[in-house]
């Protein structure tokens, strides 16, 4: 799963296409249940012992709506650029260290992290989603409720006199 066999990479530019199944991706607030494969297309550029891997990652999956909690489908897509070095480098998020004795360059964690960063903090099933009633819990997209509890902050009471 998103591993590149080091000895198969030739000097220069090498195309790289891979797809694999990931069950879910844990985001900051929600979990994306991946419906499709995670597709990676890009290139591996090798110069001596330095590997630069760049391209695009994309997938789709279901996530709960932030207002009504119904599952809906979203697409994630991002470009990436990673550098693998056989020695420690300056503290750069896109630079990874590999051991020269390693058989593979493992890109699973960096690619999943790229997808995590693409996940929305709040995802809506539609812009017009009305959400659920905070008092009775009914889905306001499907039916209206009779809850009409109007709580006004007492600090705003003097403004009500102006109307």
How do you describe this structure in short?
The protein is 9% helix and 40% strand.
Percentage of helical residues?
Answer: under 10%
Percentage of residues in DSSP E strands: 35-45%
> How many strand units?
9
Helix count from the secondary structure assignment: 2
- How big is the Rg? 24 Å
Low-confidence stretches: none
Class from secondary-structure proportions: mainly beta
* Euclidean distance between termini CA atoms: 65 Å
- Return the domain count: 2
Mean pLDDT: 87
Sheet with most strands? 7 strands, mixed
- Give the overall silhouette: elongated
One letter per element, helices H and strands E, the order comes to EEEEEEEEEHH
Quickly list its features:
single chain; 9 strands; elongated; two-stranded antiparallel ribbon; 2 helices; mainly beta; 163 residues; seven-stranded mixed β-sheet
Structure description:
Helices cover 9% and strands 40% of the residues. It has helices at 108-118, 157-160; strands at 3-5, 12-20, 24-26, 31-34, 38-47, 50-64, 71-85, 95-97, 104-106.
């Amino acid at each position: 799963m998103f591993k590149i066999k080091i000895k198969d990479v030739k000097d220069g530019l090498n195309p790289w296409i891979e797809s694999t199944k990931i069950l879910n991706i844990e985001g900051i607030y929600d979990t994306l249940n991946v419906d499709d494969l995670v597709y990676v297309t890009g290139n591996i550029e090798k110069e001596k012992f330095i590997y630069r891997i760049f391209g695009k990652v994309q997938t789709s999956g279901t996530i709960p709506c932030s207002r009504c909690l119904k599952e809906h489908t979203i697409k994630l897509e991002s470009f990436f650029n990673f550098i693998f070095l056989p020695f420690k480098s300056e503290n750069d998020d896109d630079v990874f260290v590999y051991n020269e004795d390693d058989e593979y360059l493992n890109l699973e964690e960096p690619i999943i992290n790229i997808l995590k960063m693409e996940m929305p903090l709040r995802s809506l099933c539609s812009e017009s989603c009305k959400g659920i009633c905070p008092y009775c819990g009914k889905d306001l997209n499907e039916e209206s409720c009779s809850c009409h509890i109007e709580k006004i902050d007492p600090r705003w009471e003097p403004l009500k006199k102006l109307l």
